[in-house]
């Protein structure tokens, strides 16, 4: 099945992409440039992961809605939460257009169970259901495209374990919201470090998890 895969360069979208490839999906890798502080690192990681999975060239969509906003995720403010309202809704709609043009039947996200729905309500099963309702109501009548997140009920530690098992080069992933050298203090860094630490408790995978940990020795 042809599927648009939304990549961020992080663990969750990378492992989700690898899972779909293993299941025989024909992936179209899609990355969003919305002015984020970590744009360079996220784009580089997404390209590297797409190459490692033998996917087509990364499709980069630029969104300018937030270019002049003050927000931590954009690196223009050091205060406030990292949630950027409507970000994933815009991502979903733009990805839907890409999917329609490419004849794809799915748009996939790397949402996982660890996500706090109060902090990030747009990375949940409810969000997917809402967006599917939007495109059913207001999209092309003949469209069969749906939004999915195959690992939305999986924990990040199990995503790390699955990535190692699938041969995903997790050392190439980038999870820091601040950009540049991984800060190790933002929520995204902390969750990634915790996931690698927890996944290393699986005896059969411990050595491999440590070898592929991008935070090892940092």
SSE map:
Elements: E1 2-7, H1 11-22, E2 26-33, H2 39-52, E3 59-62, H3 87-102, E4 106-108, H4 125-138, E5 146-148, H5 156-166, H6 187-199, H7 206-211
SSE string, helix = H, strand = E?
EHEHEHEHEHHH
Low-confidence sequence ranges: none
Estimated structural class: alpha/beta
Task: Give the spatial strand order of the biggest sheet.
Answer: 3-2-1-4-5
- Amino-to-carboxy terminus distance: 39 Å
* Strand percent estimate: 5-15%
What does this structure look like?
By secondary structure, the protein is an alpha/beta fold. It contains seven helices and five strands. A five-stranded parallel sheet has the order 3-2-1-4-5, sandwiched between helices. Strand 4 (106-108), helix 4 and strand 5 form a beta-alpha-beta unit. Helix 5 crosses helix 6. The radius of gyration is 17 Å and the shape is globular. The model has no long low-confidence stretch (mean pLDDT 94).
Write a concise synopsis of the structure shown.
This protein is α/β, with parallel strands linked by helices. It has helices at residues 11-22, 39-52, 87-102, 125-138, 156-166, 187-199, 206-211; strands at residues 2-7, 26-33, 59-62, 106-108, 146-148. It has a five-stranded parallel β-sheet with strand order 3-2-1-4-5, sandwiched between helices.
């Amino acid at each position: 099945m042809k599927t648009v895969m939304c990549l961020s360069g992080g663990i969750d979208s990378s492992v989700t992409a690898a899972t779909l490839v293993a299941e025989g999906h024909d992936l179209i890798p899609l990355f969003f440039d919305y002015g984020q502080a970590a744009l360079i690192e996220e784009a580089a990681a997404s390209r590297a992961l797409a190459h490692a999975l033998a996917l087509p060239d990364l499709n980069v969509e630029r969104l300018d809605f937030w270019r002049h906003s003050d927000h931590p995720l954009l690196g223009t403010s050091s205060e406030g939460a990292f949630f950027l309202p409507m970000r994933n809704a815009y991502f979903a709609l733009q990805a839907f257009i890409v999917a329609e043009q490419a004849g794809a039947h799915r748009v996939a996200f790397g949402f996982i169970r660890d996500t706090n729905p109060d902090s990030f309500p747009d990375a949940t099963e409810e969000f997917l259901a809402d967006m599917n309702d939007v495109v059913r109501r207001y999209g092309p009548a003949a469209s069969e495209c749906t939004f999915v997140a195959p690992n939305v009920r999986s924990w990040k530690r199990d995503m790390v374990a699955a990535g190692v098992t699938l041969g995903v080069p997790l050392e190439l992933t980038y999870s820091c919201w601040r950009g540049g050298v991984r800060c190790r203090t933002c929520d995204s860094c902390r969750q990634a470090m915790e996931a690698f630490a927890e996944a290393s408790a699986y005896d059969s995978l411990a050595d491999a998890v440590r070898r592929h940990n991008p935070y090892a020795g940092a």
